[in-house]
Amino acid sequence: MAMLSIYKSDVFAQQEMLRAYNFKPLRNNVGIFTEQGGTIAWLNSSNGFVVVDAQFPNTAPHVIEELKKLGEKPFKYLLNTHHHGDHTGGNIAFKGLAQKVVAHQNSLVNQKRGAEKATNLDKQLLPDTTFGTGWKAKIGDERISAYYYGSGHTNGDAVYHFENANIAHLGDLVFNRKFPYIDRENGAHIGNWISALDKIINQFDNDTQFVWGHSFDPEKVTGNKADVKAYQNYLQNLLSFVGGEIKAGKSKEDILKSTSIPNASEWQGEGIQRSLGAAYDELKGV
User: For the Metallo-beta-lactamase domain, which residue ranges apply (predicted)?
Assistant: First the structure.
């Protein structure tokens, strides 16, 4: 099975395996699409489509094709949860198609800066509509609300809630049982991430279905509050472990040699050193 190529502007260089895509309805005309990179959510409303995140230039056309099979309707909104290339690289496939591209204001800054650094600004479709604390829209019978809780995975993470369906796309604010990427270069903060997850747990009800950006098990890209709490516990255990190691006089090099985090045995995959290093730098104020 061939390895997928990493999109040049994507700082999150995961080694995911190429797999056939999955276009799946969840409930109330909202569904998900998975192939490579971050999970896409979609809405098939009476007067148009809404898409949350866009993966890569070679995969975004697949979700577009599947939605077009559901009817001849406009693509009203493309919503980005944050700027990373495995979520926004496919934006370009919506050029001339999506009526508006929406993201948090910091996501736009991060995406543009990253593209300029990678000299591929011409391959981007940047957001034309941004927000600070929140954003709302009504599409057919569905209401969509966007929320911003401060720095977490980056400093520009948005949550999009399809209110009638009661489905919320959390982007990369939750890595389900998978070691996360913590993008400190673009404003990530583990302590505030924990607080943001508290707000999410308190804001949404027990019937809310959550969509994750990434999951160790590709069949488990949706879940519930218990999964959000489990990921919050992972972050808390990460900070507690690294903080204890620092107090014990361990160096960063020593800490990075760790192969597990106490009380976090469910978290798997590549990248434990990313978590450990980010926690160390945050706690040391680097």
Answer: 37-214
Question: pTM to 2 decimals?
Answer: 0.92
Summarize the confidence of residues 102-112 as an average pLDDT: 99
In the chain, the amino acid numbered 253 is E
Report the run of H or E that residue 145 belongs to, with start and end: strand 142-148
Provide the residue type at 128 as one letter: D
Which CATH class, in words, describes the domain spanning 22-224?
alpha beta
Pairing of β 129-131 and β 134-139: unpaired
Give dist(CA 58, CA 197) in Å, integer.
Answer: 32
What contacts 277, CB < 8 A, 6 or more positions away? 252, 256
pLDDT digits (tens, 9 = 90+) for 1-49: 333 333 333 444 343 444 589 999 999 999 999 999 999 999 999 999 9
- Angle in degrees, CA 279, 284, 286, rounded to 5: 90
Q: Which of 99, 153, 125 is closest to 9 using CA atoms?
A: 125
Sequence-distant (6+) residues with CB within 8 A of 83 are 103, 107, 108, 110, 111, 114, 154, 156, 186
Closest CA to 158 of 37, 238, 52, 47: 52
Q: What is the pLDDT of residue 135?
A: 99
Distance CA 12, CA 55 (A): 12
180 with 268: CB under 8 angstroms? Answer: no
Q: Return the exposure string of 134-153: e unless at least 16 CB atoms fall within 10 Å of the residue's CB, then b.
A: ebebebbebebebbbbebbb
Q: Which amino acid is at 91?
A: N
CA-CA-CA-CA torsion sign (10, 59, 213, 269)? negative
DSSP β-ladder status, 22-27 and 209-211: unpaired
